[in-house]
Amino acid sequence: MMEWVDWSNALERAVCWLDDVHWQISRGDDLQLALESLFRGLTLLHRKWDREEWTRFCLEIVRTHPLREVIHQCPYTRHGFEKPRGYAGDAVLIDYLYEEHQGPLSPMGRDIYHFLWNQSGPRSVRERRELLAQEIDATAERVHQPRILSVACGHLREAEHSRAVAEGHVGDFIAFDQDPDSLEVVAQQHPSHLVRPVCGTVRSILMGKTSFPEMDLIYSAGLYDYLSEAVASRLTRLLFGMLRPGGRLLVGNFATRTPDAGYLEAFMDWWLLYRDENQVRAFASEINPEEIASVEQFRDSVQNVIYMVLTRR
User: Fold this and answer.
1) Which of the four pLDDT bands, split at 50, 70 and 90, describes residue 206?
2) Are 160 and 188 in contact (CB under 8 A)?
3) Burial, 8: exposed, middle or buried (Cβ in 10 Å; 0-12, 13-18, 19+)?
4) Residue 7: which pLDDT band, with cuts at 50, 70 and 90?
5) Half-sphere exposure of 184 (CA within 13 A, CB side)
6) For the chain, which domains are there?
7) First CA to last CA across the chain, in angstroms?
8) pTM (2 decimals)?
């Protein structure tokens, strides 16, 4: 497939390939087959080309190609590209991956969105929501009225799937995020004040201006994909230091070779930092090993997200 990816004129050939995909869609060919070809091709190019060549392809070729306007009929893709809240991966975008959007869409936009919703990356996001809900419930079974902190919480949809939250078995649940609009949604979804929205930045934690001591569970599953190694390590140390003995810190990061990466970068201008197990394990490098009771690492069922759980001694 696409044997030209290593040729000297690969970028020129890529334009012809996009032309072909656009022509297939425009003439009413099987949309599913065309999208599968596009998705597989972008995955291959993302893995084969060096960073400079791939970035040039995304910024100079895809952005000006007529196929982009067709693909952007998908509301999820268009929202990701336009970034109406000023940053990538906002909570509204993630909501597109939880439940299929039912608003007014063109037939083409609906079909593209449905195709993407069923890819492995969105499946990992939905599985992440369930994993976090299970972690909240397990903490409530382990500790009476636990203190829980979600960092970069977004809309905190996992709390809506938690039995412990629904039954009031959580003592203090802090939803921490920089986006006041996201926190307004959290407050509306949890009017009993069991969940406490707190507006603030990761920078304030890194600078020592914000801290939440004596926590039983701290998690941040969608933040680390944007952090440099140095920031990720420092933040992990500071969050770990907020735990009580026996408390758990859970973090996640999308893994290298995640198949959705090519599409996210080319058509959504959504650039994550993908890592392997050793790089995720290095998040704990600034913590005194004697303070760590255990380290767990695992991937989700489709192998896209690497999780690490640190338990404090």
Assistant:
1) very high
2) no
3) exposed
4) low
5) 4
6) 7-121 (no CATH), 122-258+272-312 (3.40.50.150)
7) 52
8) 0.96
